Amino acid sequence: MPLFQTANFPATQETANGAAGSWALWRLDEPEEELLARLDTTIFDTAELQQIRVEQRRKEWLGCRLALQTLLAAYPVATDLSTRQAGSSLRMHKNELGRPYLLGRELHISLSHAYPYAGAALHPRLSVGLDVEQVREQLLRIRHKFLSAHEQALLGDNLEQLCLWWAAKEALYKLNGQPGLIFARDMLVAPSDRPGQLQGWLKGQPYALHYQWHGPLLLCVVA
User: Fold this and answer.
1) Cα–Cα distances in Å, from 110 out to 37, 55, 157, 163?
2) CA–CA–CA angle 75, 21, 59 (5° rounding)
3) What is the pTM for the complete model shown?
4) How far apart are CA 192 and CA 197, in angstroms?
5) Would you say 28 and 60 are in contact if contact means Cβ atoms under 8 Å apart?
6) Residue 221 in 3-state DSSP?
7) Could you tell me the residue ranges of all domains in the chain?
8) 202: phi then psi, degrees, rounded to nearest 5
9) Which among 46, 150, 176, 193 counts the fewest CB atoms within 10 Å?
10) pLDDT tens digits, 145-197
11) Which fold, 3-130?
């Protein structure tokens, strides 16, 4: 199964035209060769891919970019030479911190994977953060590293809830895009009355986090 699901999500901050973000989730059932054949190499440089030794990691790399490529279809680059500026072709790069960005379009992106799934999120106006997770026992052992004392008391040993809070904070971390955040102090998460949402705070700034479960797989996104 290639493309697994796509969806839109509203932004935390209201925009003048009500622009929404979107995300796509890709299930990595195809062989690596088929994934690579689908990739638009005018957008994505495969030099980084060639440095990855493990096949699973290469497939995750490809899946993230194929998910993003699906979303980018809604934002075509102009092909009319009379309206196209020099250097306006679309290309994905990474900054000095390893955060992906697009050169040639004012679009904000985030990538994440949890084998055998890979995903991408895109927003036309706002910074965006995406995290894809599988439920894993390790979160029980490290919860003190990413949860405040209040959050630990709230969640207890509920592994699914621990996974949800971890994914929410990972999404906020990616949205922030800067190192140095302390998960248990600088990012706080609380339940929401709205289905499929959590309340989040990044250094006191409120955000609405959107999440979906697909069996043991969790997707969480924020803008």
Assistant:
1) 22, 22, 30, 19
2) 75
3) 0.90
4) 6
5) yes
6) strand
7) 3-130, 133-218
8) -115, 105
9) 193
10) 999 999 999 999 999 999 999 999 999 999 999 999 999 999 999 999 999 99
11) Ribosomal Protein L22; Chain A (3.90.470)
